[in-house]
Structures are given as structure tokens and as C-alpha cells.
Amino acid sequence: MSAPGRSTGSKVARFAMVGVANTAIDMASFSLLLWLKAPPLGANLGAWFVAVLFSFVANGFWSFERDADIPIHNAFFRFVSLGALISLGVSSLFLAALAGVIGVWPAKIIGVVVAAVLNFLAARWSIEGRLVK
């Protein structure tokens, strides 16, 4: 494992910046897919796929310091299987549970916010190979 160079604060700030861009990509993709008449959960899956590709590249090469001992395909698998599935699972859960009560967009936004909190640790583990320090 490589020695840490950036502070945790710097990583959180970079992760947040990527998250803002990633959220815009997710929302734009979701909106486009809804406009194309995809059902909300299908649109969520498609938007998630586009956003997760961007997120892995941006976080893997800018937010975190990739552990060279973790092959990139393993890092991607870890990122998708844990971190990104947290996003997909949480956002889909909120859509399924709340869309009929508060509407599709409020449910989507709540899911995105909750998932962001969980994704920082998941991204750090999948890219750097650690959760803390």
C-alpha cells in the first residue's frame, strides 16, 4: 500500500467536488431516461451506470491515491460491488419507498444524499485499500 500524501480533508473536499459533478451527471441521465419514457427504476439503473463510470475515474485518479498493489480491474470491481451498489441500492430503495408518497424527484434527491455519506468510505476502501487514516 502506498503512503498517504493527501490529507483526509483534501480527499473529502475532492470527493465532494466529484460528487457534485457526479450528481449532475446522474440527474441529467435520469431526466433524459424519464423523458425517453423509461420507468423510474429503469431510469435510475441507467443513470447509475453512467454516473458510476465517471465517479470511478474521477475519484480513482483525482480524489484518492490509488493503491498500486490493487490492480485497476480489482479496484473497479470493489468500487462497483460495494460503493456503487450502495448508491444504486439506497437510491432505488428511496425511489421505491417514497416516490408514491412525496414524488419521484424528492425521493431521488433524498436517496442521493443518503448514499453520498456511505460512498466516501466505500470509495476510499476500494481505491486506497483502507477505511481510516
Structure report:
The chain is mostly helical and 133 residues long. The protein has one domain. It is 81% helix and 0% strand. It has helices at 8-35, 40-63, 72-102, 104-128. Helix 1 runs antiparallel to helix 2 (40-63), helix 2 (40-63) crosses helix 3 and helix 3 (72-102) packs antiparallel against helix 4. The chain is elongated and about 45 Å long.
Low-confidence stretches: none
Q: Output the number of helix runs.
A: 4
Strand content: under 5%
Largest sheet: none
Helix content: over 70%
Strand segment count: 0
Fold blueprint:
Blueprint: H1 8-35, H2 40-63, H3 72-102, H4 104-128
Helix pairs in contact: 1-2, 2-3, 3-4
Q: Concise description?
A:
By secondary structure, this protein is mainly alpha-helical.
List keywords for this structure.
133 residues; mainly alpha; 4 helices
